[in-house]
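Sequence in, structure out. Go.
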Amino acid sequence: MYGASYAEIMEDSPALARERERAAFDRAINLMRRAAAADAPLALHQEATSYLQRLWSLLIDDLVKPENGLPKQLRADLISIGLWNMRRTDQILQGDASGFEALIYVNSLIRDGLQ
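Output:
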């Protein structure tokens, strides 16, 4: 998933594609949980937010492509969620938001939907 397009991933097999996507979300969630700890260093906040922004940037890049096989409304909804994720991570980095809880919750729901 990290450099391949969604179409390339789907060529492998839908099950393998979902497994890779789940692994990417698992990593993001794990990083955010560690960054949410009271004693977490700023570097961990930066790593978690940077990873989540890169993940959603890749997903959005694929979602906007007309050849993406997902229904148009679902793609639009996921793009909105991705943009929210990116805004929220910016707020955390700027000190305007204090925690990762909402991000962990939303990204866990997305991950769990990749069954």
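Check: The chain has one domain: 6-112. Helices lie at 6-12, 14-35, 42-63, 72-94, 101-112.
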